[in-house]
């Protein structure tokens, strides 16, 4: 009976808004900006790091696009692409949804991890991909991030995490919740070794991801207008009936409330990261 | 007197009937002792049948029972010389998390727990046990104090989740929870967490990065509330019962998944039926855990906590 209830419901993303707008422009050739409606050839938009040339709207990036935009060419080595999702709670259709997103994104799960160089400096990096189950964190995402952090600790190198996630993945229940703790204990060990962790929040960083590794960088950065928050706007409006400001839970809102070190335009991101890393390398810091 | 949960109605009815018969025999010259004895036997059997085989949704009702003992109730039963300590030293004092110092088995400990209210007025004051960032920051302050003075930390988890509100977001709800997760990993004193009611999401976990995690038999621990899960899955919070089952949130579920160490048995029908006895059940487990953990030095405690969370997850290699 329970199974029937599950299958009767059409898949919908209820909590997180989705920036991907279904436009009337043919898919592939041209892309329409959901913010200002400007239409740009997709190829040109790619060269602009998927930032609207008219209004600076930051489109979602895939994990591979992000890596290409940041990591020195030919230096990225991915990790743990072999880990496979399981269905511990036996949620109907869960595995097929994961499989479909794996095919769509070319990733084994909602995060791509590995090591590579930024301006010649070796880093470990995890990039979440919101195109894969809304970037939600289940066992594999937690495990991949934890292993990347452990690798950074082992090699004594900085850790970078680009968050893009609706939060903990519901279909793996409390196991997902515990990934918040797992990644945190690994980050604590990395930190105790005096190593640098930079967290970069992108659209969207919410729920259990916001309430774990994303918020505890030595330096917390975010992309302009990124949605960042713990509880969803709708949940807050419904349960508390509070009127919320227009810019509520945007990167700029968080900056104004002391939750971020800086909001960084995508075009400036690589340079910013490179400078931060350089200022944390031995020889430049006080010994 | 106590709020009746729908599934226990047959028990309540039978109890009333027995009471009626007893009163009848007192005012009338008839001997019904055989009947009463029979009914009492039936009552015991019925209680064992119903309370001994609770379904997920029935456990949720027990976990949410308005008279279910809270952190304060257990503090009163378990610790001597308790002194409550207030405030996060930065913004305020969140009444949804209480904490302080006391003594357990003659040794000083730090105690921290979510605190629900027992009536509407108290619930408003305590925001229904749903903390704001300053609550988590108070908890962290008290934990760091415990670390300094080498006191074990005992946390009681009892919340639907962190408070979803504008002020909470402005003051960094995410950061406050996340900070606790990271910092709790580093403590060189024993940390023990007991889920005494509802363990809701990140707001619960922020007191849960412990060396030992226990759940009371009818408590729950989940990534999202049954109502929240239902509204996502079926666009209707009314399916909370089905969602609760699907999400596997009971103490036996979590024991099976290897997340918790042990289930602390409850008084038949739930802790609210005999809080003193319930506290005794907890005392025995706490006592043993503290003795066991006292054998580990600081580094071993950190490693033990690391290993505990490091292994959680289900995937193929």
In terms of topology, how is this protein built?
The complex is a heterodimer of chains A (287) and B (317).
Chain A: H1 2-8, E1 30-32, E2 39-41, H2 42-47, H3 63-70, E3 77-79, E4 84-85, H4 94-105, E5 111-118, E6 121-128, H5 139-155, E7 159-165, H6 173-192, E8 197-206, H7 207-210, E9 219-222, E10 228-229, H8 233-240, H9 251-256, E11 262-263, H10 266-278
Parallel strand pairs in A: 6-7, 7-8, 8-9, 8-10, 9-11
Antiparallel strand pairs in A: 1-2, 3-5, 5-6
Chain B: H1 9-27, H2 33-51, H3 56-63, H4 71-78, E1 80-84, E2 97-104, E3 107-114, H5 120-125, H6 133-148, E4 153-159, H7 166-170, H8 173-184, E5 191-200, H9 201-205, E6 212-216, E7 220-222, H10 226-233, H11 240-247, H12 251-256, E8 262-264, H13 275-293, H14 298-310, E9 315-316
Specify the helix fraction band of chain A.
25-40%
Multimeric organization: heterodimer
Structural class of the helix and strand makeup of chain B? alpha/beta
Mean pLDDT of chain B: 95
What count of structural domains of chain A?
2
Query: Beta-strand percentage of chain A?
Result: 15-25%
What is the CATH class of the largest domain in chain A? Answer: Alpha Beta
Q: How many strand segments of chain B?
A: 9
Class by helix and strand content of chain A? alpha/beta
Overall mean confidence score, pLDDT of chain A = 90
- Tell me how many strands of chain A there are: 11
Shape of chain A: globular
Low-confidence stretches of chain A: 4-23
Strand content of chain B: 15-25%
What spatial form of chain B do the alpha-carbon principal axes imply? globular
Rg over alpha carbons of chain B: 21 Å
Distance between the termini of chain A: 65 Å
How is the biggest beta sheet of chain A arranged? Answer: 8 strands, mixed
Order of helices and strands of chain B: HHHHEEEHHEHHEHEEHHHEHHE
Q: Which chains share the greatest interface?
A: A-B, 66 and 58 residues
**Roughly how many Å is the radius of gyration of chain A?**
19 Å
């Amino acid at each position: 009976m329970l199974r029937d209830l599950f299958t009767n419901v059409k898949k919908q993303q209820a909590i997180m808004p989705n920036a991907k707008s279904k436009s009337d422009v043919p898919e592939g050739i041209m892309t329409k900006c959901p913010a200002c409606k400007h239409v740009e050839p997709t190829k040109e938009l790619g060269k602009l790091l998927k930032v609207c040339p008219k209004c600076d709207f930051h489109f979602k990036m895939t994990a591979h696009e992000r890596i290409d935009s940041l990591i020195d060419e030919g230096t990225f080595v991915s990790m743990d692409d072999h880990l496979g999702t399981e269905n511990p709670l036996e949620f109907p259709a869960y595995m097929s949804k994961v499989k479909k997103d794996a095919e769509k994104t070319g990733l084994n799960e909602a995060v791509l991890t590995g090591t590579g160089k930024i301006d010649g400096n070796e880093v470990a990096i995890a990039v979440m991909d919101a195109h894969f189950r809304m970037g939600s964190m289940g066992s594999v995402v937690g495990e991949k991030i934890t292993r990347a952090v452990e690798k950074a600790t082992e090699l004594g190198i900085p850790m970078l995490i680009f968050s893009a996630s609706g939060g903990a993945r519901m279909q793996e229940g409390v196991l997902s919740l515990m990934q918040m703790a797992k990644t945190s204990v690994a980050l604590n060990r990395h930190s105790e070794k005096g190593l640098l962790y930079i967290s970069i929040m992108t659209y969207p960083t919410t729920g259990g991801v916001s309430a774990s590794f994303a918020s505890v960088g030595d330096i917390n950065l975010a992309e302009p207008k990124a949605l960042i928050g713990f509880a969803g706007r709708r949940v807050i409006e419904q349960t508390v009936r509070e009127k919320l400001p227009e810019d509520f839970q945007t990167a700029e809102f968080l900056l104004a409330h002391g939750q971020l070190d800086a909001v960084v335009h995508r075009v400036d991101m690589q340079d910013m990261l490179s400078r931060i890393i350089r200022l944390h390398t031995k020889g430049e810091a006080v010994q | 007197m106590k709020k009746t949960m729908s599934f226990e109605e047959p028990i309540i009815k039978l109890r009333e009937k027995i009471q009626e018969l007893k009163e009848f025999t007192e005012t009338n010259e008839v001997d019904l002792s055989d009947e009463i004895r029979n009914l009492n036997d039936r009552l015991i059997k019925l209680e064992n049948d119903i309370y001994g085989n609770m379904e997920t949704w029935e456990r949720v009702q027990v976990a949410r029972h308005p008279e279910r003992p809270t952190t304060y109730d257990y503090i009163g039963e378990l610790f001597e010389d308790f002194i409550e300590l207030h405030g996060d030293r930065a913004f305020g004092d969140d009444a949804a998390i209480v904490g302080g110092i006391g003594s357990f088995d003659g040794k000083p400990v730090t105690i921290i727990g979510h605190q629900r209210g027992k009536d509407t007025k108290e619930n408003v004051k305590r925001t229904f046990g749903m903390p704001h960032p300053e609550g988590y920051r108070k908890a962290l302050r008290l934990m760091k104090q415990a670390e300094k003075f080498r006191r074990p930390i005992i946390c009681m988890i009892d919340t639907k989740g962190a408070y979803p509100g504008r002020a909470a977001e402005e003051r960094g709800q995410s950061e406050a929870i996340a900070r606790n997760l990271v910092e709790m990993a580093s403590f060189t004193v024993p940390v023990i967490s007991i889920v005494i009611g509802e363990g809701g999401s990140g707001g619960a976990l922020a007191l849960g990065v412990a060396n030992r995690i226990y759940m009371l038999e009818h408590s729950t621990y989940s990534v999202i509330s049954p109502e929240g899960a239902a509204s996502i899955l079926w666009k209707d919070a009314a399916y909370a019962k089905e969602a609760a089952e699907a999400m596997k949130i009971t103490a036996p579920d979590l024991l099976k998944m290897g997340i918790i160490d042990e289930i602390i048995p409850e008084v038949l029908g739930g802790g609210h039926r005999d809080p003193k006895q319930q506290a005794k059940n907890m005392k025995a487990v706490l006592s043993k855990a503290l003795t066991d953990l006292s054998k580990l030095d600081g580094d071993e405690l950190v490693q033990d906590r690391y290993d505990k969370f490091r292994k959680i997850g289900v995937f193929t290699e």
